Amino acid sequence: MAEERYVYRRAGAAPQARKPATNPPPRRPAPQKRRRRRPGRVLALCLVCLLLAAAVGVALVRCGIEEAAPAKADFGTAAPAWQKNELGYYFNSAGNAIPAAVLKGMDVSRYQGEVDWEKAKAAGIDYAILRCGFGGEWDGQEENWSQDDPQFRRNADECTRLGIPFGVYLYSYATTVEEARSEADHVARLLGLVAPAFPELGDYTAAPYQLSYPVYYDLEDKSIAKVLPDEMAEIVHAFFDRLTEHGYTGKQGLYASLNWVRGRFGDAAFDPWRENLWIARFSDELGYTGTYDMWQCSYTATGADYGVQSETVDLNFVMRPFVPTGVKDCISKFTDAKLVNDTRQWELHLANKDDRATLTTNRDNAEAQNVFWTTSNKNIATVDKNGTVRARTDAGECTLTATLADGTEQFSCVVRVGDITVPIFATAGLQGNRDRIADAAAQKAGTPDAILLDAGNSLHGTPMASMTGGMDMMSAFSAAGYDLQAVSLWDMAYGTARLLSDANMAAGPTIASNLQDGSGTPVLYRSTSWHRNKVTDGQTAVIERAGYKIGFFSVNAAADTVFTTSNTEVFAAADFAENAAKQIDTLQKQGVDAIVCIAGNATADSSWQKTLLKQGVDAIITTAATADNDRVLAAGLGTDGLARLDLTFTQGGGCTVTVQPALTAAALDAARTGYTAAATPAPDSEDDTAAPTERADEAPQKAADAYAYADSLLQGLDADDQSIWYTTLFTFAENTDAQKTISFGNYVAALYSDIAAAHVGSLLPEGTEITALACGVTAPAYGEVSRGALIEALPQSARIQLIKTDADTARTLAALGERTYLNSLTEFAPEGDTYLVTDSAALSALDAASYTVLQDYGDVFWAVRMNINDLTNNFQDPFTLPEAPSKGVGRR
């Protein structure tokens, strides 16, 4: 631990006045002398008053009523990047001191060649982390096989000879427990704990290595990118358990990027290794306030400076930041005080006025005397020199700051008194429209602890969404910082491959709990969120706010609902009740504080809502536009508004649900023009009228910044879409004998017919005739056809649907389009029940009660695009219309 470089000097006691031996009565001066001496006596009296005031002030300081301020930090002269200056402080590449860094090391492998360790030590390297190998132990099968790092033995021997403390890491590929055990066998042999199983392998047992730093399990390879967090924790346990079986008694550590740490190590199963986390983030700051031990800060340090043969080398720091560690001596009416750390902000929760708790830090008792505590608002909470916090109100928020006496380090902790409210903002039914997404981002940013999600039915519905296969909506959610996206059945227009690809780039997890493919596998199983590096099973998601865990799952429609895309992918909604019970149980086992169900395509009957609420669900968010239950949020407002639901957690336990009035389109429009350019200054902490929630003062600026940021990214997406719109998709070649080809409209109708034919014999009886109507289709011009030109030739943003209707409705529908896939020599004369496959744009002209949708096959443009893709060898060959039949259907 770094030595304190400044001594805390308490103010000295005021000197005591000497008491005279006698106290004679005062002399009465002559009048004239009294007038002459009066200025002197006044001056003397003022001096006495000043001395008395000083004495009182010193006494107050000595009594602890008023603390002296910490010293102004003096870090000395800035050193070059990652170097130490004359006062012993390390500096980053921006020239700022890193006071928490206490030791500098480097990690090496074969890629650094033969390291000159004497030069490395002279360059200020205090320790080393050596790669010992990668992957599992050899099983004796392959020839010329080795996964030992070829430089490990030399590096370890040199560090041992020169007295350089070192640890080791193994680069892992393990995706199973068995592979993890093999990797542990590998490390155990390299450390000299076990003899090799085969003579071809190196034997280190003659002089086992003594490690001063942990064995680090390096978790970063793409092969393990889709291992679920609970599976990864099991793999890590298996690795270190096996290593312990071999006699290893040293420290156990994990290496990963900051994204991995935040996205995958939240599970409590990783708790045993939090003290020895080695986190990689190549930046001037780590930006992590959780528990860890080492920071890999740079991979670009000049190799020659440190005696390595590679151009660059990785540098690391052992970090001992000044942080809170917990609470003690809690006095609260309902529960112990709660210290929360979400890697960005420390929070202390107290229930009521006069509740108190003492914050502990990672400084020992002697060092703790050198900590100065201040509060931003004494009307909310006070703090004394020992870090004891007392609530002075029943509800409010302020910030405590603890600063070391030398001024070099400090941390802040938000104190929150009373209940905690977590607002949930929800969009749904956007149908490919991005107009309200930046507004939603601003509302989230301007509301402390808010969660922003989309409940579904948003990926499809505009030409741009059709053109990008819904990708632009996922990108828009990511740009706005959505925490969660739920997929409804109507979002499956483009199939699982496209959905998984887009979900992997989303800002937060994507869930579709009871949507399954034809084999019964969840459609989003092992979906990865790239921005947060989270991998999920597509079933549930847990979002943490203010130390409270809120679990989400989604359900879609009834069990008999089936959806088939134009590429014949089949999706079904698993049994509603059975799946919901499973997800509720899963979330309850994770210890969540509240459960929210997102229901897409739900039936009008609301009995299912009451059932879910009785099973342990706290609130329901639906894609509907209205709700008839006070714990159900109707989020399906499209671009007409933004829905809000509040979850309020009491310090004594429990959660209440409040559905707030929706923010209307007019309110959102007004908010756009009302965002202030600067936050309102926080009120003075001594002011009795100070606002109870300090972060509310920052809300306008945060909202304005979030809106501007999201809007700029969305404009970038718009520009990209416009560019894609005019990009050539394929070449449409004219057949010289046009009379022998069908029309473009009949080609599209034929595609409809082929898609729907798959349901004859399953959904429909054998021999059922299905008539295909391609209403609203025009032919693109021959030559290069852009994506935009193809979209304009088709019914825009329409879906292919199989319907059952009566003969009169069928004739009405057929009359809407000039080009239909019909027998050109025979009049269309349906009788009785008629089965048609057409598009939703045409169906919108009919009374919805006059037909029944039997199947939905997804987006028209996407179906045509993919079919042309298949016919042209990925658009490499020209596209020509199929030949017309010699007679009958489609003949011209």
Short note summarizing the structure:
This protein is an alpha/beta fold.
Describe the structure.
The protein has 892 residues and is an alpha/beta fold. The protein has four domains: 90-319, Alpha-Beta Barrel (TIM Barrel), CATH 3.20.20.80; 324-417, Immunoglobulin-like (Sandwich), CATH 2.60.40.1080; 420-721, Metallo-dependent phosphatases (Purple Acid Phosphatase, chain A, domain 2, 4-Layer Sandwich), CATH 3.60.21; 730-871. 26% of the residues lie in helices and 25% in strands. It contains 20 helices and 41 strands. The strands form ten sheets. It has an eight-stranded mixed β-barrel with strand order 3-4-5-6-7-8-9-10, surrounded by four helices. It has a six-stranded mixed beta sheet with strand order 23-22-21-20-34-35. The protein has a five-stranded mixed beta sheet with strand order 12-13-19-18-15, with no helix packed on it. A hairpin with a 4-residue loop joins strand 25 and strand 26 (534-536). The longest helix is centred in the N-terminal third of the chain and has 32 residues, at 31-62. The chain is globular and about 95 Å long. The model is unreliable at 1-40, 42-66, 676-692 and 888-892 (pLDDT under 50).
